[in-house]
Q: What sequence folds into this?
């Protein structure tokens, strides 16, 4: 018997980002072209070449969990739980009873509990193994952000965690879409969470020569597609989407932000950090094919756009190869990492959420700090100011270390 493919929509959004805690602060920050980048305060970074990051300011876990739960969970799990609480409330799902077996959780992270790992290593070395917290392992492993979400809300369906560097969030959302299309679930809580602004995290990316060193001007350091870009700025937080089967959403009267219509995943099979462009190009083509979209039907691409010299050029070329003449004639491209920094495993969830809000409100987010365009980056990147325009379809790109690529297609919902 032929399977009937089910339509999938986004009915809830939860954002914890360097622009603010909650959907409205983040979205208004995006519309205002606000930078969430500043000097690192989470640890003493004075001896590092790169001393700036997109930290989540004013985060109080007590607003989202009790003190015991906060102590037992690394910051990335706290961010994920907070964003999920925001998304659940936004979706109108009930919280007075377990969500049940038809609700799953697919939430990943690029690196997991790095701060807890660093702190516990010091404890073991300096004070001995008996002083290691029994909650150390559950606090650092990536799947425990989804595990904790599942336990809190009684979501007893599919539960696992993609770990694919900066493509993690998109893989989580795309796989959630597939599970719903195939009838495995009616709702999946999906996205990513990350908290790697630590001495080890920043030192590692610095050693890889990946980070901006514009320490004297942090708000202007993340500058995708600009000639003067010098690397990415790390960020942290979480982006969670409530992904739901259409008829299920309609039956409970849910607000629908947009429809998820396409997903693809590819590999460059080329280099661990240098993009080939070929994998990204294939991912966009396959995503369009999966969604049944012609290139000219897509008005907006939320670019991976990390602000690295090589990556921005490779993505621009890939977009031009996929969209042909439409790339310069009618396509809008922007990188919200210019405002949030690169949130690594959380980036895909946040950027898919921003793309959904852009479709819902009819506003394309800007790329801020685009003051001196790179001649090799010659598309319309919506420089410095948002653009009000009603449009029907968008792609959201996420590409990660190891050459892993994941692309989502989102469309304005019409019944």
A:
């Amino acid at each position: 018997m032929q399977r009937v493919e089910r339509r999938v929509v986004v009915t809830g959004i939860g954002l914890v980002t360097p622009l603010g805690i909650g959907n409205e602060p983040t979205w208004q920050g995006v519309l205002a072209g606000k930078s969430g980048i500043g000097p690192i305060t989470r640890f003493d970074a004075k001896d590092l070449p790169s001393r700036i990051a997109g930290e989540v300011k004013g985060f109080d876990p007590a607003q989202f969990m009790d003190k015991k739960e906060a102590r037992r969970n690394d910051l990335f799990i706290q961010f994920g739980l907070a964003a999920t609480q925001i998304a659940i409330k936004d979706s109108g799902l009930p919280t007075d009873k377990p969500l049940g077996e038809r609700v799953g959780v697919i939430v990943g992270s690029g690196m997991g509990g790095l701060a807890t790992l660093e702190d516990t290593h010091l404890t073991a070395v300096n004070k001995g193994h008996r002083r290691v917290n029994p909650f150390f392992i559950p606090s650092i492993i990536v799947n425990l952000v989804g595990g904790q979400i599942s336990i809190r809300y009684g979501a007893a369906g599919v539960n696992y965690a993609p770990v694919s560097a900066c493509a993690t969030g998109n893989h989580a959302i795309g796989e959630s879409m597939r599970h719903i299309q195939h009838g495995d679930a009616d709702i999946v809580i999906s996205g990513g969470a990350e908290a790697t602004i630590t001495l080890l995290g920043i030192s590692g990316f610095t050693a890889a020569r990946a980070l901006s060193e514009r320490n004297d001007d942090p708000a202007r350091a993340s500058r995708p597609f600009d000639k003067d870009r010098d690397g990415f700025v790390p960020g942290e937080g979480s982006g969670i989407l409530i992904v739901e089967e259409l008829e299920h959403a309609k039956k409970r009267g849910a607000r629908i932000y947009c429809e998820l219509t396409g997903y693809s995943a590819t590999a460059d099979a080329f280099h661990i950090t240098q993009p080939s462009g070929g994998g990204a190009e294939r991912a966009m083509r396959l995503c369009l094919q999966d969604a049944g979209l012609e290139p000219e039907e897509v008005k907006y691409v939320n670019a991976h756009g990390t602000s690295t010299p090589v990556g921005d050029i490779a993505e621009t070329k890939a977009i031009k190869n996929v969209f042909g003449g439409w790339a310069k004639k009618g396509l809008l491209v922007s990188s919200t990492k210019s405002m949030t920094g690169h949130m690594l495993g959380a980036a895909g969830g946040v950027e898919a959420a921003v793309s959904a809000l852009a479709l819902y409100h009819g506003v394309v987010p800007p790329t801020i700090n685009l003051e001196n365009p790179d001649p090799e980056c010659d598309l319309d990147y919506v420089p410095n100011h948002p653009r009000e325009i009603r449009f029907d379809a968008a792609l959201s790109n996420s590409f990660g270390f190891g050459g892993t690529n994941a692309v989502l297609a989102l469309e304005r919902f019409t019944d």
Summary: The CA atoms of residues 329 and 380 lie 9 Å apart. DSSP finds 14 helices and 15 strands in the chain. The longest helix spans residues 75-91.
